[in-house]
TrEMBL record:
InterPro entries: DivIVA_domain. NCBIfam families: DivI1A_domain. This is DivIVA domain-containing protein.
């Protein structure tokens, strides 16, 4: 997965059911994009990079009475991100 793919990703919104806090998800994805761009360019990653473990362990605050991101959509995307970071970490990026 490339940084531009992360930037283009869209999640369904929830309104009256539990979702993930949109600002938290967006902030985390900003960090993901920053780390992916460094991997893609071969730059060294100095400040706390996102890793496969980071993606696997991230948790977002739930929303109930305001719009959030559909948890199923976000979780599926995180699974794909985790795989991508594992490949970068092993040096087998596509």
């Amino acid at each position: 997965m490339r940084s531009d793919e992360v930037l283009k990703e869209k999640f369904r919104a929830t309104k009256y059911s539990v979702g993930y806090d949109q600002q938290e998800v967006d902030h985390f994805l900003d960090r993901v994009v920053d780390s992916l761009r460094k991997y893609e360019s071969g730059e060294s990653i100095e400040r706390q990079p996102v890793t496969a473990h980071t993606v696997q362990s991230v948790q977002f605050a739930p929303t109930r009475f305001r719009e959030g991101y559909d948890p199923h959509d976000v979780d599926q995307f995180l699974d794909r991100l985790s795989q991508a970071f594992s490949e970068f970490e092993r040096g087998t990026d596509n």
